[in-house]
């Protein structure tokens, strides 16, 4: 499977010290918990540390590492084993926490990390597009959420008002 | 046509798919993606949509 090879290269990059902890989000991350979700790309969230001597963190080391190994760029994506991968820095404390608390799993003997279901829902709530709301409903219908953990994340990251509004809009009869 | 039965049947199918091992689900995602890209490539006027989002 090409995606396993994609993950293997990301893991090699991690082993080489180019990136630290990472976690898969987006549709591929959601697929860990739900039915397969159609997507054309892979979202990899990664804490990008500044290069020693520089104040600003940039994804340049990732680009340098992958392009040196034959990966092409396509828009904001790096194409790894035919899959466009977008490396995303944390946009705030919620995503930082999601990376830190990501679940470790294996795909065909390849180790990888996926956001927890509760973090995926909280991030979708924070992002707030129509497709994010649809995904939250999928998670709720699938019934695999730890509601107490979700409530704690929602409170910790100032999403209570959005969550209340979402529930009022979609979850009341 | 019983819409409730159809909806329940779809829900069962989604649960069955969700219960598959992650690797199996990723194989299905790859198949979906190949179909999606083939459809985009065959769009008569627009051609293949850029992968990069807004």
Tags for this model:
heterodimer, A: 173 residues, alpha+beta, five-stranded mixed beta sheet, 18% strand, globular, B: 54 residues, mainly alpha, 2 helices, 67% helix
3D structure, described in words:
The complex is a heterodimer of chains A (173) and B (54). By secondary structure, chain A is α+β, with helices and mostly antiparallel strands. Chain A contains eight helices and seven strands, in the order αβαβαβββαββαααα. In chain A, the strands form two sheets. A five-stranded mixed beta sheet of chain A has the order 1-2-5-4-3, sandwiched between helices. A two-stranded antiparallel sheet of chain A has the order 6-7. The longest helix of chain A has 14 residues, at 2-15. The radius of gyration of chain A is 17 Å and the shape is globular. The N and C termini of chain A lie far apart (43 Å). The model of chain A has no long low-confidence stretch (mean pLDDT 94). In chain B, 7% of the residues are buried. Chain B contains two helices and no strands. The mean pLDDT of chain B is 85. Chain B has helices at 3-18, 22-41. With 54 residues, chain B is mainly alpha-helical. Chain B is flat, with a radius of gyration of 16 Å. The interface between A and B is medium-sized, with 27 and 22 residues.
The strand count of chain B comes to 0
**Strand residue percentage of chain A:** 15-25%
- Our count of helices of chain A gives 8
Our Rg estimate of chain A from Cα atoms comes to 17 Å
Instruction: Identify the overall geometry of chain B.
Output: flat
Mean pLDDT of chain B equals 85
Report the total helices of chain B: 2
Order of helices and strands of chain A: HEHEHEEEHEEHHHH
Structural class of chain A: alpha+beta
- Uncertain spans of chain A: none
Biggest interface goes to: A-B, 27 and 22 residues
- The oligomeric status of these chains comes to heterodimer
Q: Outline the biggest β-sheet of chain A.
A: 5 strands, mixed
Low-pLDDT parts of chain B are none
Share in helix of chain B: 55-70%
Averaged pLDDT of chain A: 94
Euclidean distance between termini CA atoms of chain B: 41 Å
Overall spatial form of chain A: globular
């Amino acid at each position: 499977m090409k995606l396993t090879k994609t993950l293997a290269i990301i893991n090699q990059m991690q082993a080489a010290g180019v990136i630290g902890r990472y976690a898969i989000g987006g549709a591929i991350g959601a697929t860990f918990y739900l039915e397969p979700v159609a997507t054309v790309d892979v979202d990899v969230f990664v804490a990008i540390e500044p290069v020693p001597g520089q104040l600003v963190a940039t994804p340049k080391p990732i680009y340098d590492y992958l392009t040196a190994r034959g990966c092409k760029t396509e828009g904001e994506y790096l194409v790894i084993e035919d899959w466009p991968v977008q490396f995303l820095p944390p946009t705030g404390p919620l995503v930082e926490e999601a990376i830190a608390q990501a679940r470790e799993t294996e795909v065909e003997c390849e180790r990888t990390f996926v956001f927890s279901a509760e973090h995926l829902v909280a991030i979708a709530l924070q992002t707030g597009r129509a497709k994010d709301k649809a995904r939250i409903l999928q998670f709720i219908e699938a019934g695999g959420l730890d509601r107490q953990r979700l409530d704690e994340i929602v409170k910790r990251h100032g999403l209570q008002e959005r969550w209340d509004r979402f529930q009022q809009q979609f979850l009341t009869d | 046509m019983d819409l409730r039965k159809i909806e329940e049947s779809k829900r069962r199918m989604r649960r069955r798919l969700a219960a598959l091992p992650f690797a199996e689900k990723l194989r299905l995602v790859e198949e979906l993606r190949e179909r999606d890209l083939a459809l985009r490539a065959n769009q008569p006027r627009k051609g293949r949509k850029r992968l990069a989002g807004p």
